[in-house]
Write a structure and sequence with these properties.
Helices cover 13% and strands 45% of the residues. By secondary structure, it is mainly β. It folds into two domains: 177 residues, no CATH class; 73 residues, no CATH class. Strands 1, 2, 3, 4, 5 and 6 form a six-stranded antiparallel β-sheet that branches. A six-stranded antiparallel β-sheet has the order 11-12-13-14-15-16, with no helix packed on it. The chain has a four-stranded antiparallel β-sheet with strand order 7-8-9-10. Strand 2 and strand 3 form a beta hairpin. The relative contact order is 0.11.
Length: 252
């Protein structure tokens, strides 16, 4: 991957994580040119009501300085939105900073929303700072996220904005911002957040939305002993508290 060769020391610690994130991003978005609106609409219509949220970022989004352009649909029947990501390349590093997002409805000439400030710093090798449209609160509408920061380890944090039908705009979700490396399970209506605090300790937290409030329902804490055997401790929400409910061997 030529984009991360010769990186400066500040970015070296996150280079391997960037490679992982590029793979994740490629599986969620298409790395081609911005699709014309009719192609987005045709793709959504072909998929029916159950079609995944469709979005594209310009081909040059990787390794390019801002502004960057993405385009997508929040839901069937809603207009195509253009997202202009504004920011700069951080001096003496291979990092891109996104400071604001200007959102324009394709059939209107003026912006319908400006999100500012946006807290997003990611390797330039990662297209559009990991821009994604996906349903994060399971309400049937696409939400917006970008990489907030990577870490030397396996933990990744995002800046998240949920689509609000009432406000007809994206609104921040600070609680979701606190989750490390979240995975969204549409079928289970559940979010799994993973956190590796050390080589021997690994936590997986499970969350659901309860009337728009993010609630942790379960935790699994895996710990490897000196003998190399992994022990898992289980925690469950009982009332308003998370309480230990059992232990056992770690499972894949």
């Amino acid at each position: 991957m030529g984009g991360i060769r010769g990186i400066f020391p500040e970015a070296a610690a996150i280079a391997m994580m960037a490679l992982f994130l590029i793979g994740v991003s490629a599986s969620c978005a298409h790395a081609g040119e911005v699709l014309p609106s009719h192609e987005l609409g045709d793709a959504l219509e072909a998929g029916g009501e159950s079609a995944p949220f469709i979005y594209e970022c310009e081909e040059a989004a990787a390794l390019k300085p801002p502004p960057l352009t993405c385009r997508g649909i929040v839901s069937a029947g809603l207009p195509v939105l253009d997202f202009k990501l504004q920011g700069y390349l951080k001096p003496s590093s291979d990092l891109r900073v996104i400071e604001s997002i200007t959102i324009t409805q394709e059939d209107k000439g003026t912006p319908v929303q400006t999100i500012e400030p946006v807290d997003s710093v990611a390797p330039t090798a990662l297209a559009a700072n990991g821009f994604e449209l996906l349903d994060m609160n399971f309400d049937g509408y696409a939400d917006l996220r970008l990489i907030r920061q990577t870490t030397p380890g396996a933990n990744v944090f995002y800046t998240n904005y949920l689509w609000s039908m009432m406000a007809d705009s994206f609104v921040p979700d600070p609680a979701l911002d606190e989750l490390s490396s979240p995975i969204f399970d549409m079928e289970a209506q559940e979010i799994r957040a993973t956190n590796r605090s050390s080589a021997a300790d690994y936590e997986t937290d499970f969350y659901t939305y309860n009337e728009d409030v993010l609630v942790m329902t379960h935790r699994q804490h895996d710990r490897y002993g000196a003998n190399g055997i992994c022990q898992r401790t289980y925690f469950d929400r009982i009332g308003e508290e998370l309480k230990e409910t059992g232990t056992g061997p770690c499972e894949d």
